[in-house]
Amino acid sequence: xxxxxxSETEVVFGAEIAALEERPDHIWAQFGHGPARxxxxxxxxxxxHSKVRGLAFGPQQSFEKDLGYVVAAFETQxxxxxxxxxxVIYSEPGQMxxxxxxxxxxTLFLFAFASEGSSPATPDLEAQKATLRxxxxxxxxxxxxxxxxxxxxxxxxxxxxxxxxxxxxxRGRVALVGDAAFCVSLMAGQxxxxxxxxxxxxxxxxxxxxxxxxxxxxxxxxxxxAFIESxxxxxxxxxxxxxxxxxLGLFVRNSVIRACAIPGVAKLAFSRDITDxxxxxxxxxxxxxxxPAPVGPAPLANP
Length: 303
Fold this sequence. Notes:
Layout lengths: L1 H4 L11 E7 L2 E6 L5 E3 L2 E3 L6 H6 L7 E14 L10 E5 L2 E7 L4 E9 L10 H12 L6 H6 L8 E8 L5 E2 L2 E3 L2 H4 L8 H19 L3 H30 L4 H13 L5 H10 L29
Parallel strand pairs: 4-11
Antiparallel strand pairs: 1-2, 2-3, 5-8, 5-9, 6-7, 7-8, 10-11
Helix pairs in contact: 6-7
């Protein structure tokens, strides 16, 4: 995608918006490094902990819904055992560790555990490692050898599981897409796909509306909001099954997973949450950017 747009769009890497000042005919963005610059619009697509959202709409706690879990993940090389195309889970009440194989002999480990309060997850790497050792160090299965790989981990994804729920995704000349606007949480997945869906609709409505940005922002929300909210509700329902807090909950979760091997059961149990019913508008895009011809075999469609 970047190769497609880089000749049409100025791209600045390593920059962060530090302040926003809206004026009648434009908005000034002050960057952490470099001078302020005027823009027609500012679109925040900077994730769960969005700086743009904080500047334009207020503090994160005003919009965040904590789902009661913390997640952590890291990669390692050459881990054994290795199970190709298998997602392996070990669970105890209120916590779970999983592993799955990646390309080039890499393995990703994912931890989830019930949170001990609403305080933000620590950004300190050594404190993160200490938390994982404390929570999983006395557990069975492969936990000991997995935690031993923490010594070589240069970075860990570590955050509480939360959603962002806002009454509006736009204010003045600022609008939000993706997790910045409507994080559905790690429990739901699809974060990148939902962000790209929203960006597609927002871009299409802006192209249709011309200078009428309020109309474009309103149409953008009208088209995708109900769809996003259904994904958030599904994630909230599923969060308790990610790392059930009781042995009974574990038994039920594991029984459902085993039952899904029976043809038709998965569709019956989860079709409401995994079936996408949003019909995207077909915008008439200007024929200015020609996508490069595909190289090699065409990718298979993702069902």
